[in-house]
Amino acid sequence: MTKLDRLIAELCPNGVEYESLKNVCLDTETISWANNNTKIFRYIDLTSVDRETHLIVDTAEINSESAPSRAQKIVEKDDVIFGTTRPTLKRYCFITDEYDGQICSTGYCVLRANNDLILPRYIYHQISTEKFNRYVEESQRGAAYPAISDGDIKKFKIPLPHIKIQQEIVRMLDAFTELQARITQYEYYRNNLLSFGVVERERE
Questions:
Q1: Which long-range contacts (CB under 8 A, 24 or more apart) does 127-133 make?
Q2: Which CATH class, in words, describes the domain spanning 20-159?
Q3: pTM of whole model > 0.85?
Q4: CA angle (38, 42, 45) in 5-degree steps
Q5: CATH 3.90.220.20 domain extents, the chain
Q6: 34, 72, 91, 201: most buried, per Cβ within 10 A?
């Protein structure tokens, strides 16, 4: 019996209840540009998040004068953001220290964990599942420019086990995520290093 099996048997002997994301997440806020007219922020727009690695790869610096109209949502460390415009493109990521207090587009739903109930990384892994992706695909609206509302994202129900079980699940999944990242990195460098950057040609 694994550690996870033992925890489930001990802490959830009668099964696991489901809860909507809305009921396990805290309210978030938007920026008042009038009160921040001297500050410079990093802006996370829809193209800032890599769809394969789910990391922020590029941001622009903005202030109250240069901020686009969609630059409204304040993000904090450990938030999870999910792109609601063309949502099946799976633009989502975890906010790290580097982007604490910065700004993201209104094209993202910001999920901020109520730490008394749920781990931020548990939310992250839940929205990476095929079940969540199917829900998004069924719930999005619009043909040419499909989108899903923040409210519909937060209606999605997830299993909510005891925090200790969440911790073990996150530990296991983070280990797999790190391994996959290492494999991807290895393949990238292998392909580039072994090609030597030359064009293949026939030997004379």
A1: 127/80, 127/82, 127/92, 127/156, 128/54, 128/90, 128/92, 132/156, 133/88, 133/90
A2: alpha beta
A3: yes
A4: 125
A5: 20-159
A6: 91
